[in-house]
Amino acid sequence: MAADPTEQPTPPLDESIQATKAETATIASQLDTLTGDFDYTRRQNFMAALQAAESDAYALENVPDKFPAGSTEQQAATLYIQFIRLQTKLGELEEQHKPYLAHQLAALAQDVSARFDWATILQYYAQVATPADAPKDPWDNGILANAISSTAPVRETLAHAHYGVLGSQPYGQLEATLTAIQSQIPEWESRGFLLAQPRDPGTETLPQLQTRAQELVTTIRHIVGVVSAYAELKRRYRDGIIRYNRTTHLLNQVVASLNEAGGYGFNANDSAYLDAVSNFLAAQVEQLSANGTYPATGSRHRAAMESLQAVPVESAVNAITLEGFHEQPGELLVVTESDLRQELGLLVPACFLAKIRLVVVTTRPTEAPKEDPHVVATTPTEVPQENPRIETIGWHNGEFDDQGNLVESVIELYRSPRVQNSANVHEQAYTRGEFLDTALHEVAHSIHSALGYVDMHDWETVVANDTTAVTWYVGHARKTNVDRGLFEDFAESFMLAVRNPAILGAKSPARYQYMLSLVAKYMGEPQKKIFLQEIAARIHKHADTVQQTRSYLTDLEKGANND
Predict the structure, then answer these.
(1) How many Å separate Cα 6 from the centre of its chain?
(2) Per-residue model confidence as pLDDT tens digits over 437-450
(3) How far apart, in whole angstroms, are the C-alpha atoms of residue 372 and residue 49?
(4) Alpha helices in 116-165 (DSSP H)
(5) 8 Å CB contact between 511 and 460
(6) Coil, helix or strand for 523?
(7) What DSSP designation does 470 have?
(8) Hey, which residues does 42 pair with through a beta bridge?
(9) Model pTM?
(10) Hey, what's the torsion of the CAs at 178, 114, 259, 261, to 10 degrees?
(11) Do residues 193 and 116 make contact, with C-beta atoms less than 8 angstroms apart?
């Protein structure tokens, strides 16, 4: 057990030890001065004589007589004898003093450990656990496994005291550990790592503490698994964005600090540390749930959904800057700004619209935009050089933070919202439909980029269980790149779900259910009610069209039979 600070095992011998060390250092310096001018052979001969006599104290006393009287070697040998005597004396003093030193060290470690403000330490570490390419605080060596590496001497001292082996440590090691702790105290105090008064030790038994620590480890590992899976999904669809997963790095270090098997787990026996980890973990889950990285539950989930559903549709739609929707000489504008805003407000949850900064109708670029470390651009088609029959008709540019979370989207549309004045009503309707399909496809990329873990995971499950290519383009994209196929599958499925729901429902019921549920759950009640009514109307319209086509085909068949 740790030493009781009220008991003094032996009188302190600090002054005698320090005086002896000082005298020893003086003799050593004088000895170096005397032998400093010895050449190699002279030094070797001198040292050989000392070494030959070193194991025999009587012979050592007679070493000076082996050298000429008054010679430098004789003076040096005399000093060397004094040096050996002082070293022997110092060892004896240290051995007498060691119980007191061990007691002093244990008492200091107990006091410091009882005053560690683990909540502040964990919070500090969370702030300095920055991406690998960012400037680091000198204390951030990436090892919270030691509960901040500088606290290791305290933990190790308590462990040795607990198992009754502190006094068996070499004197020099005890002294170095004491010095290390004393030198760190001002730094800890300046960072707010030490409380003014020691905490109560608590009443939990060691088995209870260890059980609680392992429960925390299990919980943290589950969270790390979810966060890591989400990070992999982000990497898949937002290549080059996430270079360093700050959260998993941080939580893995907490796990290591609780894991006895790794040799770093003595903090698992500290109830205050476990309390701090529990509170720290709750704060991390709160933050992860807020940005969709970890599934929210209960009141937290309700509050998050209510916040997203409360985004005003009209203000979100009107906040989007629209460019390129203007009349041209000799052309008719079949999709106006008002038309697009109406379609978006009708079919897209306001919280996703709030991520879109700009939708611009512009000329198709001859090459892809220059790479930016925080921008991911996705196209719904191949570049013309790869297949002359395929044209790039839109582009989604997503700006992300360093953890792969969508900040805002810019959408470029290369289809024209205009037709020639001479275009008939069918040509106008076709152009309008193709333009809106493209716009909703690109908006879907923005939505996909903004999804949290649960929605992305559910989508991956849908496409894993149903490999249907809902459009020709999805099949084409899959052949180009598997991940791109998944990305384009989402965009095409969303576009069909809101523009031609009957078609998606017939081709892939699972995708239809996913998309309609996704859209509806993020809408406030007024928007959701109108949305569901609109989807029903579009399905009925499609059914009416199919029925009319069937009637037409029946009439044709009757006419052919009569002929």
Answers:
(1) 46
(2) 999 999 999 999 99
(3) 73
(4) 118-128, 152-162
(5) no
(6) coil
(7) S
(8) none
(9) 0.68
(10) 50
(11) yes
Closest by CA position to 330, among listed 436, 430, 416, 439: 416
- Cα–Cα distance list, 334 to 24, 324, 327, 496, 557 (Å): 98, 13, 10, 21, 37
**Ranges of the chain whose pLDDT falls below 50:** 1-6, 129-143, 145-147, 262-264, 370-389
DSSP lists the bridge partners of residue 419 as 332
Q: Write the CA distances from 90 to 9, 51, 75, 84, integer angstroms.
A: 19, 21, 23, 10
Structure-token pair, residue 127: 């702030």
Exposed / middle / buried, residue 161 (Cβ in 10 Å: 0-12, 13-18, 19+): buried
For 51, residues 6+ apart whose C-beta sits below 8 A from its C-beta are none
- The model's pLDDT over 383-408, given as tens digits with 9 standing for 90+, comes to 444 444 456 789 999 888 877 788 99
Report which of 159, 160, 155 is spatially closest to residue 181, judged by C-alpha positions.
155
Q: Can you tell me the distance from the alpha carbon of 422 to that of 417, in angstroms, rounded to the nearest whole number?
A: 15
Element (H, E) at 441: helix 425-450
Give the pair of three-digit tokens for residue 506: 């017939």
At position 555, the amino acid (one-letter code) is D
| Other CB atoms within 10 Å distance of the CB of residue 541 | 12
Of 250, 324, 305, whose CA–CA distance to 280 is shortest?
250
Q: What's 368's DSSP letter?
A: P
CA distance 127 to 435: 46
Tokens of 451: 């999804």
Measure the CA–CA gap between 169 and 367, rounded to whole angstroms: 70
pLDDT score for 499: 95
The answer to whether 449 touches 376, Cβ cutoff 8 Å, is: yes
The token pair at 140 is: 């951030």
Amino acid in the structure at residue 315: S
- Return the residue matching tokens 């992860």: 288
Does residue 406 contact residue 434 with C-beta atoms inside 8 Å?
no
Residues in the chain: 563
